[in-house]
Amino acid sequence: MGKTGKAAEKALEAADITVNKNMVPFDPQKPLVTSGVRLGSPAVTTRGFGSTEMKKTVELIDQVIQNLEDESVITRVKAQVHELTRSFPLYPKAFRYTE
């Protein structure tokens, strides 16, 4: 495939998808490059993502990884990420100070 965790991490970050490059068992790549990425699923489940949203997230990640250097794909995916996350805000209710 020729793709690395480091390249995927960078491209996904540009699309506002946060992952970490991560080694896989028997990884042929160096530790600072890696062959894999790690997804932090608690971050999205805390927002309320279910299986439908996770499937969409995987599709978006795949689009970026298949087109690591295509800025138009990354820009399009970024817009879709913003649309998806707008429906699942980090803080759904305004914080109020009460005594």
Q: Per CATH, which architecture?
A: Alpha-Beta Complex
Low-confidence stretches: none
Instruction: Profile the largest sheet.
Output: 2 strands, antiparallel
Order of strands across the biggest sheet?
Answer: 1-2
Radius of gyration: 16 Å
The CATH topology corresponds to Aspartate Aminotransferase, domain 1
Strand content: 5-15%
> What is the total domain count?
1
* CATH class value: Alpha Beta
User: Roughly what is the average pLDDT, rounded to an integer?
Assistant: 92
User: What structural category arises from helix and sheet content?
Assistant: mainly alpha
SSE sequence, one letter per element? HEEHHH
Q: Any idea what the CATH superfamily is called? A: Aspartate Aminotransferase, domain 1
* Total number of beta strands: 2
- Assign an overall shape: globular
Number of helices: 4
Helix content: 40-55%
How far apart the termini lie comes to 58 Å
Walkthrough of the structure:
- The protein has a two-stranded antiparallel ribbon with strand order 1-2.
- With 99 residues, the protein is mainly alpha-helical.
- The N and C termini lie far apart (58 Å).
- The protein is built from four helices and two strands; from the N terminus they run H-E-E-H-H-H.
- The protein has one domain (5-86): Aspartate Aminotransferase, domain 1, CATH 3.90.1150.
- It has helices spanning 5-14, 41-47, 51-66, 71-86, and strands spanning 20-22, 36-38.
